[in-house]
Amino acid sequence: MFGKLFKRNKEQVKLFYNTDIHCHILPGVDHGSQSIEQSLDMLRAQQEMGIDHVVLTSHVTAVTFENTRESLTQAYEQLKAAVEEAGLDIQLALSAEYRMDEYFDKENAAEHLLPMPGNHILLENFFQQELMNLDELLFDMQIKGYKTILAHPERYNYYSRRRKRYEELHNKGARFQINILSFTGYFGEEARDTALWFAKNGMIDYLGSDMHNVKHAHIIMDYLNSKEWRRLSKEIEPTVKNDTIAF
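Above: the chain sequence. Below: its structure as tokens.
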């Protein structure tokens, strides 16, 4: 399957970093990969792009994906065994993408969170409106020793006309993870324009694939071969810290 999908990318441009901190490759726990086979294809795509360290960040959200430390760990161990059996030279770490909702509050209070190496944690806002007590929550997380990373802030359209809010959050210690898919226009022109604004203003701390399937990998790989990415990558490389998250 993988060979057929990526055969044409004989001279695939590599990313300038080796660690992906946002993807949905863990099988069967959210609307990302649905099988070990799909997960292995996605990991092979990561390798094709130059990634050899992957933080698995499945959704943890109220009602839809109420994953637990136990459910994610079980899927993680199964995937690790499959990666070893397949002979893939890629390192995995288990974490999650936490929607800041009532289920997150419960898991946080119980100290059940799964941070990335170095105590980084990926937090997702609501898509309809900003969490009312966002500043307070971020401060509390930082007091606990977490290094807070906001997932794909360019996709929250309610910030599009008040971008100074991004600067406020950044100044308060929140770090921003931008999706490469956003640069491609996959999430719409508004998200693309905002992602480019982040690049122009030197506020991209981390990049992520946010890969849910092999189609996403294919879109990213095509974009990495574009003239725009060659120009943009030089602009944003000085601020991107993906490889500081050491396994």
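Confidence is low (pLDDT under 50) at residues 1-9.
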